[in-house]
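anyone else get weird line breaks when pasting these?? whatever heres mine. first is seq + tokens for prot A
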Amino acid sequence: MLKCYSRPLLPKRILASFPVHENIYTIPNILTFSRLIAAPIIGYLTIHEQHVAALVLFIYAGATDLVDGWIARKWNLQTVVGTVIDPMADKTLMTVLTVSLAMKGAMPLSLAALILGRDVLLSIAAVYYRYISLPPPKTLARYWDFSLPSAEVHPTGISKVNTALQLGLIGWTMSTMAVGGDLGWWGPEGALKAMWYVFATRAPPIS
């Protein structure tokens, strides 16, 4: 779920005082980008049954998710692009691991389809709000220039909790795979699958 805030309409003399471009090369953004890069690597390791390495990299991704926001707030390094790529990195990691775990039979296909379908809706919403809040002229080059501020994307509290729980369950699943646990639907991990369904459906896509 996303809440998006566009800049209020202000007189041109006030708008002129705002920077046209913002510095996107900050430590929090670099950490977030590293999490984006790590996502497909974790998926690759999971598919090729390198479960320990995948789990270690997943823990790194989770640590950067905690640290980047703390650094941004403590040293006043918040950027508009940071509010966009941070939830994007979370959803990318969720999507890649959902597909990977489903391919390995660690997640029911119906559940994977539910999670992916909701994330597609979130992605479409993010693309739409980026476009409508981009200062004119609206060109493709300017759309992908993330140093140009646009609407700030803020996940709601429920969305943050839901994402944290889902990532926690992914970590639990990966930990079980790393130690060679039985992930059969009717095996001892059946309770884990039930929890997957609960947390995948506990919140609506967008509010």
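and prot B, same format (seq, then tokens)
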Amino acid sequence: MDRAKRAASAILGKDKPPVGAAGASDDDFADFAGAPDPSPASAPPLGVSQAGVPAAFATAGSSAVPYTAWYRVWERSSPKDFVQEAILLPFLVLAILVHFWGTKKNRRIAQRWITAHQPLLEEEYAVVGYGGPRPPSVEDVQASGLQQALASESVLESSEVLKQRTALEYSTYASGRQNVAFSDVRIYLYNRHNPLSLLMEYAVSTFFDTFPTPSERLDLVSYLFDGKEDEMVPVGGGQLGREVKEQRKASSASRYDNFVWAVVHKEGMKRLRDERYDISLTGTKDHPKLPSWATVMSENAEITEHLLTPELISAVESAGDLFGHLIISDQPLDKPLNLDDTVPQKRIFLTLRLPSSPEDYSKTRPIFAYTLRLPDLLVSVAHFRPDVMKKVRQTRDEQIRKLRRAAEDEQAEERAVRRDREKKEKREATLKGMSAEEQRKYLEKEREKGQRKNQKRMTQKG
């Protein structure tokens, strides 16, 4: 009964506790009683500088950078932002200046050389350079007529004579001479546009003998006709062409005997023998008429007697330390790997060091001019006794026999492989057309045949 009364009074609100009692029962929430009512955070408008950003979001040590237009770099940067660029820029400018200075210096050296030696080339060859004859000027035509101006104007411009292949290599070309198909001239200079690379070359050549010391040099290679004018310089048809062909057939004036002969500076003698196959065929012998620093490399002493002329000795002495080597060869530079490589190809090689001053070109001009005229001397005197040439041919014939034997062995091996392959294909085709029983009998017969061969072989060995 009492329980029903209490429930009814609770529903009607008669047992509502006093306010003090409610506050006493909420002691656990007293920490939150003094907190202010939350208010929404206001976002700063666009365009506000970093100075208005609350300190809670500022990075330690950051400075205020104003917002400006994209092209007004000076307003949001300072010189200290470009310290690395300021350090690298002088080195970049220095590298560019050194590159241009080095290429210009090399071009000037090459131009000086062609200026000093172009008259010698023009005296011996009809065409010098890559461009062709320059056309006559209007003044020349008015003064002497078109025909005479064309006849007299056969000299090339200096820029057409010399071609720049790289920053340290220049070349020129000459053709149109009796006994010579063409001559190729290469000028190799220091790597002045890249001093670090040049220093590395010097360092490597100091510690390793296989790397030559960097030097400025000239390489002249003349390719001789040797009776092959029709192959190297074909002629057209017509009456003139037929006459030229008949003259070439009737004449063998450009031929001479096959041999290898050289005059070399002793400083580069070992390197030449190691690097060139043709020089490895020769023997070395000092000559009393040559300077002490030069020697002769020849296949026979009689060849030296015919080719070591007083003019050549004088030219070598005049060149002095600028002389590298003069080589007359009919053999390849690298060791022949097949019979095609043993076909004689007659050439003349001249290597000279470039002098440091233009006045010293007078030392190398005699040997350069002598080399240009050397084909005429070879055609006239390089015909030796059969005994001499027999000794010269022995080495070449031995090399040809080795190559022929290697070629025959290779062909025999190829034939054996082809024969085995054909035999295997025939066996597979035969087995493919048989039944299972026929294949079994065929394989047993083949096995018995192989066993009989092995027994017979063992009996013969015993």
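btw re prot B: The radius of gyration is 46 Å. The mean pLDDT is 80.
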